[in-house]
Amino acid sequence: MLISNNTRIATSRTTLAPLSVADAPFMFELMMSPSYLRFIGDRGLASIQDTENYIDSYFLKSAITHGFGYFVATNAKGARVGTVGFMQKEYLKYPDIGFAFLPQFSGLGLAYEVSQAALEYARDEWHLTNLDAVTDSDNAASKNLLKRLNFEFIEEIRNPENQQCLQLYGIRV
To answer: What is the number of other CB atoms lying within 10 angstroms of the CB of residue 123?
Structure first.
């Protein structure tokens, strides 16, 4: 079941809403942040328009194809703080959980709170029971979050697109 535009998931400090093209200014800022560029990668975006196109052709296309997707987390003050969601990558057996937060909202426990809520939604609404996660081997924060979410290290793999060495984690929810 695809995410409805009316879907909202409340956590104690955030609200999750489906990612949309209207989130492009926030996504551009997030995707240009140093940690995103280092650990997730440069997507070649140079403008908000590029980001709108990327959201549509990558995130939303995947959501339509697979029936699950990404959320934007907004705090109580209305600021967009990060993203969490699921995507089926061609080189993985199960849907991949992904998360990213603006630097000023990192280290506050929001990633755990938001990811836990997204995992529960994925299990209850999309009936996803097996999930993968990939992270750069140097991304200690991501590895720690995955372990805290009860993901277990499986093996080192290579991303076939760019041959980046990644660590694969998995969970059965």
So the answer is: 13
pTM of the model as a whole: 0.92
In our burial notation (b when 16+ CB lie closer than 10 A, e otherwise), range 89-100 reads: beebebbbbbbb
Cα–Cα distance, 152 to 4 (Å, whole number): 31
Contacts with 42 (C-beta within 8 Å, 6 or more apart), sequence order: none
Give the domain 9-127 fold: Aminopeptidase (3.40.630)
Determine the residue type at 158: R
> For the chain, which residues make up each domain, given as ranges?
9-127
Examine the pLDDT at 66 and tell me if it is beyond 60.
yes
Q: What are phi and psi of 133, to 5 degrees?
A: -150, 140
Which whole-number Å values give the CA distances from 64 to 38, 41, 68, in the listed order? Answer: 28, 23, 7
